[in-house]
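Q: What changes when adenosine-5'-triphosphate is included in the input?
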Amino acid sequence: MTAPLLSIKGLQASVAGKPILRGVDLEVRAGEVHAIMGPNGSGKSTLAQVLAGRESFEVSGGSVLYQGRDLLALAPEERAREGVFLAFQYPVEIPGVSNVYLLKAAVNAVRKHRGLAPLDAIDFLKLVREKAKLVEMGEEFLQRSVNEGFSGGEKKRNEVLQMAMLDPKLAILDETDSGLDIDALRVVANGVNAMRGPERAMVLVTHYQRLLDYVVPDHVHVLAHGRIVRSAGRELALELEERGYGWIEAQAA
Amino acid sequence: MSEQAHAAFVADFGRRAAELPGGGTSWVERMRRLALEQFAASGFPSRHEEDWKYTNVEPLARHRFEAPARPAAVSAQQVAALGFGADVREHLLVFVDGHFAPELSRPGALPGGASATSLAQVLSREPARLEPYLAGAMPSGAFGALNTAFAAEGAFVHVPRGVALEAPVRLLYLSASADAVTHPRTVLVLEDGAQASVIEQYAGGDGIVYFSNAVTQALLGANSSLTHYKLQQEGDRAFHVAAIGLRQGRDSRFVSHSLALGASLARTDIGVRLEASGCECALNGLYLAGGSQLTDHHTRIDHLQPQGRSREFYRGILDGRSRGVFAGSVVVHPDAQKTDAHLANHNLLLSRGAEADTKPQLEIYADDVKCAHGATVGQLDEEMLFYLRSRGIPAELGGALLTYAFAQDVVGRIAHAPLRARMADILIARLPEGRLIRENA
Ligand SMILES: Nc1ncnc2c1ncn2[C@@H]1O[C@H](COP(=O)(O)OP(=O)(O)OP(=O)(O)O)[C@@H](O)[C@H]1O
Ligand SMILES: [Mg+2]
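A: The predicted holo structure follows.
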């Protein structure tokens, strides 16, 4: 079997002295789709943000290997250039910085890291149009300030657009399905499915079986109280939908 | 404080008053004498005065300045470098060290009997044209009095009833001599229904100590519209003190931009009086300071009559050990019902040593009004920065982008496109790692 793309062992993290992750273990291989579910406040977003390099969380134990390298030693931008992408649960509004500028600077930073020449204006426009179509986003969104005044659903689509532009190896989607109407959910799911491939791994943080009807995961994990307390195949998601988390938390306690 | 310093100005007046343009005209002489008396009585302001709490003018008051008898040599290229492009349409008057420089100016032809002229020319040839605006108008404070006592040169812009200037008038006040003091006086008169935009630009050499003490007064007739830009790009050791006073007539519109970039000490006072009903005014401001610069804005908007609307947006970006001061007050007088006023000041600190003092103030004496104010002092937003970095954008570029975007909130309001573009260039050049913004565009 190939080495895992991502290998998390005993990861502990805290914020403002408060422990949140209490020893997370998780292995993700290229080509796999993992779903992480779990009660509110259990640490799912914390895990996602720690993987992306958010400095306000203090890692107090454990290790994370990505492509065999110490991920935690890298700055957030280096992680992104190495192919880690986080779709934020709450995408940040950045007034005064246009979406298209962000996309261009981001794509070219990644290309530079991969030893490729920056895209010229024409090639960039072609690429961004093609990807915007994938998430059914109008071109007017490109000129607007990043996420500013976007509706909840538009923000989530914008995250998927950024993911598609950056072509990551490991995509972590933190509740990208939350707050979407039925059509938008289908659009986002199609976008995610279009990017599924043997080279790429995906971690979907979600509360709903709905998304997993479209994007069928290989593994489902339950994160509770800062630990992964159960891992199984896709059937676990269905069981959770029916029974909630109480029975697992009781078993894990 | 500094008894000698202000005594030096007073003594200088004794020597020079007779040579000043307009000398021999009794109202001019009287105006100057009264102003000098006022200055002699008050002296320079001290930090005990509330309005000067944060701004210490002692270094200014200690320095011996002299009004240059002749201007230093300035080339056409130097002037061009301060312009906004060779093909920009404008009416340009250039002043060097307090002297009008016709050979560097390009006033062009103004439509409909409008004029933009050297103040000294009008004072000496047809002073009666200025009497209604200058004779009774004593700008407040020591610096205003000092300007009035010595005001010799500046500009008189007059736009007759119903006339609209298409191209802006640009007044370039240049200082090129060490230890020079100038007292530029700008008089803007827009009659009923007139429209104009005026750019006052202050610039000077780096490395020399000099003092610009400017006063601008504007009178807006009914239904007139004035857009005023003050672009302060003084040299790095300069002292710059300026006061702008406005009186607005019925249904007039005033838009002001104060862009403060240079000088070691810069103070701008803006006072707007909405003297009739239905007036609108918008005060926009951006100040950038680094090193040990001090930049200070004091603004006051007086709503005196009903149905006025005022908007004020000031932003400051402070680096190094610089200090930014903003004191903005809006006073809604008892007759000013249905006033709609909004005042905001936001400051971005780029270093630990930088400091911002902000004091937005509303004084409301009418009951049916809509007023709001807000002020913040903060650092780069950590969440925004992380978001950018998580997309592969280097931290330095991310910081530059957020700083640039912060300033663009004010710069984006500049209607004159060539100036807006110039401000964007200045930001790119001035902001830490600003060049990365263009390299990645
Ligand atoms: N900056 C912070 N300061 C204090 N507590 C924090 C901070 N960030 C997160 N927490 C706490 O950490 C815990 C885990 O939060 P996290 O966002 O990871 O949960 P989650 O599993 O993603 O929840 P949800 O399903 O609601 O999105 C919560 O109790 C939260 O309040
Ligand atoms: Mg979460």
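Observations recorded in class: Chain B has two domains: 68-380, 381-441.
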